[in-house]
Amino acid sequence: MTIVNITINNRKLQAQAGQTVYEAADAAGINIPVLCHHPALPPEGACRVCLVEIERQRALQPACTYPVTEGMVVHTDSPKVREARKFALELIISDHPLDCMTCEATGDCRLQDLAYEYEVKGEKFADGKRHHYAIDDPNPFIQVDRNKCILCRRCVRACNTINGVEALGIIYRGFNAKIAFGMDSTMEDSPCEFCGSCVEVCPVGALWPKMSLGKGRPWQMRQVETVCSYCGVGCKLVLHVRGNQIVKVTGGQGAANHGFTCVKGRFGYDYVNHPDRLSKPLVRRWLLEGGTKDEGRRTKDGVRDVSSSVVGPSSEFVEVSWDTALDLVTKKLVETKKAAGGDAFAMLCSARCTNEENYLAMKLTRQVLQTHNIDHCARL
Ligand code: SF4
Ligand code: SF4
Ligand code: SF4
Ligand code: FES
Q: What DSSP string describes 107-156?
């Protein structure tokens, strides 16, 4: 690794050759504002809010794309730099609705943060707004509001490089430029897989999860880290919880997913608070009150019909405590093992369980039930 010596804001630093000025400054704890830059995506240089002054360069340079070189001297917060950034923000906001009061992104919007920091109110170039796009993409997951899009191309890069789907791009030029899916179709009619990576990286409110609309502000939610329950990849998720309800899911920084996830992890959470979800154990009445399974079958002309799948009153489910249900399971396991031996059992483990749960299932099967009849759904 080649080390280069640079100076940022009169601080002498060492950086790695190949790093950008932004990366070197960030590693040294020096803040340079960014909008189009995202650490997980290739640099783009689209927004110009990261401009910095580099000595012996005639023009200001974008820190997110400009590589460090030996002896480089950089100023990240000079009056000239701040003025240029403010101008870049004024241009961006000139074609942006000033909807922060009702916008879903308020409190979680990089443009809003920078407008606040640089005191940009949208008054300069106030007649610059040219488009009023309908917010009408019919897909069930992602609201697309092109009026708020700042054309930073983060979504395009995420779709191309994180997912490799290439479902969206920017079409037309100049003031007519806009994000488009497929051949300018709806998201559903494009190759989109609804992974939501574009939503994850969008720095403003242009792409937003529909299931979270109107569900609250960021400061009204607590964030809970968890592991996705859908498959064995083990993506880390962040649940945004208001009261006792999950109102949004974003990707967590886990080794398996680095902040991104698939459609199931991101949008498949409505089962958690669904009223039909079982939250207490249910046990057949005949198991509690004694008797056999067949006694619960419907009778036909007074004769018990054991072939019937329709259950009678003694086979109805009864809500019980966990202790009662687990005692019953233990009793049945012990009885069956005594009567028929360990090989009467088979355990099927699941990729939806954690490694720890699967390990415990293996221990229970081999050591307690004493059988090797254990397999895993990943082999099916
Ligand atoms: S996207 Fe950001 S800046 Fe634009 S209206 Fe929403 S909160 Fe305000
Ligand atoms: S949801 Fe995923 S696949 Fe669809 S456009 Fe966004 S990044 Fe691409
Ligand atoms: S939709 Fe969001 S991420 Fe995509 S270009 Fe517009 S502002 Fe950037
Ligand atoms: S963050 Fe550098 S140009 Fe956008």
A: TS-HHHHHHHHTT--S-TTGGG-----------SSEEE-GGG-----HHH
> What mean pLDDT do residues 122-141 have?
86
Closest CA to 177 of 203, 196, 153, 200: 153
The closest alpha carbon to 349, from 357, 340, 341, belongs to: 357
- Comparing CA positions, the residue from 355, 286, 277 lying closest to residue 315 is 286
Domains of the chain from N-terminus onward? 3-91 (3.10.20.740), 130-214 (3.30.70.20), 218-277 (2.20.25.90), 278-327 (no CATH), 341-380 (no CATH)
What does the angle CA 129 – CA 218 – CA 87 come to, to the nearest 5 degrees? Answer: 35
| Whether pLDDT at 217 is above 90 | yes
CA of 70: how far to CAs of 174, 210, 363, in Å?
A: 37, 48, 59
CA-CA distance, 119 to 206, in Å (whole number)? 22
Predicted confidence (pLDDT) per residue in 46-77, tens digit: 999 999 999 999 999 999 999 999 999 999 99
Distance 197 CA to ligand 2 centre (A): 6
> Would the CB of 152 count as within 6 Å of ligand 3?
yes
Whole-number percent of the chain with pLDDT over 90: 81
Question: Is residue 82 within 8 Å of 104, Cβ to Cβ?
Answer: no
Pocket residue to mutate for ligand 4, from 21, 35, 76, most atoms within 8 A of Cβ: 35
Once rounded to an integer, what is the mean pLDDT over residues 233-257?
A: 95
- Kindly report the protein residue whose alpha carbon is nearest to atom 6 of ligand 2: 198
Whole-angstrom Cα distance, residue 246 to residue 225? 12
Please name which of 88, 72, 79 lies closest in space to residue 35, comparing C-alpha atoms. 88
| Matching residue, tokens 């009026």 | 147
Strand-strand pairing, 73-75 and 3-8: parallel
Phi, psi of 10 (to 5 degrees): 70, 5
**Which among 243, 234, 318 is positioned nearest to 273, based on CA atoms?**
243
